[in-house]
Amino acid sequence: MPRLADHDERRAHILDALLRIAASRGLHAASMRTVAAEAGVTVSTVQHYFQDKEHLLYAGLERLSVRVGERALRSVAGDGPRAVVRAWLGQFIPVDAEQRAAYTVFAAYHALALTDDKLARLPYGRRTGALERTLAGNLIGSCNDPDAAAAIALALATGLGDSVMAGIRTPEAALALLERHLDDVLGGDVA
């Protein structure tokens, strides 16, 4: 008896193909046809899971966000709020090939959302708001305004990631600046 396809696995396989294309050639190269070819499936299979390109693109963004979140949770080193905040913010500073690819894809989505009304109307920024709330929750009791501190820290990490990708500073220098900011917000020896 033939094995029935696991729909979640097939969907994830297609989305991973989209993310590989976006990381290597940009989102403009990601059509239903190119994603199908990269995934080794038919265009009709891609259309079965994603009714149109906009839904495919949004699902790809969601998949990437989940993968980055999983990586952040795996990278928490130590106990306490500082370790959690450092792990999440560190995901924005590309220190290896996986993070460079994620940065490239997120930047492509951001650029596309600025000019594509359909993508911009999707709940594109929902995960950023959830991350800010997570960061703020870990900063409660450590500073006067945890919401503002979370927003500033996230903006700093994003800017540091930009500077690493542009070759302005090394990943190590960017991480050192992030640590210095965390010292300012949380105190030098907070776990």
Question: What is the domain total for the residues?
Answer: 1
What letter string, H or E per element, gives the SSE order? HHHHHHHHHH
Structural class: mainly alpha
CATH fold label: Tetracycline Repressor, domain 2
Q: Which word captures the global form?
A: elongated
Provide an overview of this structure.
The structure is a single chain. With 191 residues, the chain is mainly α. The protein has a single domain, classed as Orthogonal Bundle (Tetracycline Repressor, domain 2), CATH 1.10.357. It is 73% helix and 0% strand. It is built from 10 helices and no strands. It is elongated, with a radius of gyration of 18 Å.
How do the strands and helices of this protein lay out in sequence?
Elements: H1 7-25, H2 32-39, H3 43-49, H4 53-74, H5 81-90, H6 97-115, H7 117-121, H8 126-139, H9 146-165, H10 171-186
Give short descriptive properties of this protein.
mainly alpha, Tetracycline Repressor, domain 2, 0% strand
Brief digest:
With 191 residues, the protein is mostly helical. It has ten helices and no strands.
